[in-house]
Amino acid sequence: MKIIVTSIFVQDQDKALKFYTETLGFVKKHDVPVGEFRWITLVSPDDQDGTELLLEPNNHPAAKEYQQKIFAEGIPATMFGVTDIHQEYNRLVENGVKFTIEPTTMGELTLAVFDDTCGNLLQIVQK
């Protein structure tokens, strides 16, 4: 068994698609209409056959409440691995990304947390 798709709740699929592709650098794999929303998945440009990230609409009250509560508590919705966290941090800051935690070393890893502008905090980690 392996993880093939994981999802993240977003307030606006179009805004999220733009941020996750243009700012973060993910590649759109699927964009299929499904009722009033779309099945939009993204992949890493380095692993286009790897795990897909689904931009899931937060239109259900439970999803919206979950998203708002973890954001308010400062809990990242998901984590992305990077090779050089300082380089990635600088690239994202140059692209206007707002960090809540700058690169911080914790044991064997360094992490940073930022706002995805779509209702989530995201964490990048360098092991």
Automatic annotation (TrEMBL):
It holds the Pfam family Glyoxalase. InterPro entries: Glyas_Bleomycin-R_OHBP_Dase, Glyas_Fos-R_dOase_dom, VOC_core. Residues 1-127 form the VOC domain. Signal peptide: none annotated. CDD domains: VOC_like. This is YurT. It comes from Paenibacillus mucilaginosus 3016.
